[in-house]
């Protein structure tokens, strides 16, 4: 008799423990969604899905690995129509992107650009100019961290210069420039050889380190807000 009672108590206890674990897991998942921190990566190359997009994806995945609360999304501008800023901007693909960046869960940005003539791409310049509506009447991006990923045809092909150009513009939006853990002090600098970054171990490391740092800072600032 005692064995049957003990068995019933064991089964009841195990069931309660399983129910509690399920409830805890569900609560944890709900808490992660409620406290989500989104990091958008923007590839400002006219070539969709190519080396710059892959470099930004590398940084985004590294940011995601920092904490389960971090959600990532790549915005690839390749093939999209984005005109430069004007007092009356045309109806183009920028409208939908601006809506995404107004997400209350936005925690940070990772901007990627190829280096053309030792400078950021024209598409990157147009995109950054067209962020102007996020300055007025409210500084939507202020206080958010951002990192810059650059890809060049040479190891010293103007990557750091392009990083500084992007940083200078986003400082006008009140954003916080973030460098990466060594060796990505300013940002990520990658070398494209034969139209691929796969063999650039050093460059991929800078993208990973930058992404991690953007993720860490985004979480720290979200916790304080």
How would you describe what is shown here?
- By secondary structure, the chain is of the alpha/beta class.
- The chain folds into two domains: 1-34; 36-224, Rossmann fold (3-Layer(aba) Sandwich), CATH 3.40.50.360.
- Helix content is 44%, strand content 16%.
- The protein has six helices and six strands; from the N terminus they run αβαβαβαβαββα.
- The chain has helices at residues 2-34, 51-64, 94-101, 122-129, 159-171, 201-224; strands at residues 37-43, 70-76, 106-114, 145-152, 176-177, 188-191.
- Strands 1, 2, 3, 4, 5 and 6 form a six-stranded parallel sheet that branches.
- α2 (51-64) links the parallel β1 (37-43) and β2.
- The longest helix has 33 residues, at 2-34.
- The termini are far apart.
- Residues 16-27 have low confidence and may be disordered.
Feature tags:
225 residues, 2 domains, 6 helices, globular, single chain, alpha/beta, 6 strands, Rossmann fold, 44% helix
Can I get a quick summary?
This protein has 225 residues and is α/β, with parallel strands linked by helices. It has helices spanning 2-34, 51-64, 94-101, 122-129, 159-171, 201-224; strands at residues 37-43, 70-76, 106-114, 145-152, 176-177, 188-191. The protein contains 6 helices and 6 strands, in the order αβαβαβαβαββα.
């Amino acid at each position: 008799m005692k064995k049957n009672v003990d068995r019933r108590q064991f089964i009841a206890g195990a069931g309660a423990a399983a129910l509690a674990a399920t409830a805890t897991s569900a609560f944890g998942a709900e808490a992660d969604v409620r406290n989500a921190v989104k990091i958008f990566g923007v590839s400002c190359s006219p070539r969709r899905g190519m080396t710059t997009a892959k470099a930004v994806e590398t940084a985004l995945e590294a940011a995601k690995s920092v904490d389960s609360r971090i959600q990532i999304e790549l915005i690839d501008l390749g093939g999209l129509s984005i005109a430069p800023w004007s007092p009356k901007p045309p109806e183009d693909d920028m409208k939908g992107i601006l809506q995404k960046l107004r997400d209350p869960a936005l925690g940070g940005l990772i901007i990627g650009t190829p280096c053309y003539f030792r400078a950021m791409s024209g598409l990157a310049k147009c995109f950054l100019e067209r962020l102007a509506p996020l300055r007025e009447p409210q500084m939507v991006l202020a206080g958010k961290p951002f990192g810059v990923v650059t890809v060049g045809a040479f190891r010293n092909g103007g990557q750091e210069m392009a990083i500084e150009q992007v940083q200078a513009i986003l400082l006008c939006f009140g954003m916080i420039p973030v460098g990466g853990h060594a060796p990505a002090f300013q940002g990520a600098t990658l070398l494209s050889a034969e139209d691929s970054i796969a063999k650039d171990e050093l460059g991929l490391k800078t993208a990973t380190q930058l992404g991690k740092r953007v993720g860490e800072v985004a979480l720290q600032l979200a916790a304080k807000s």
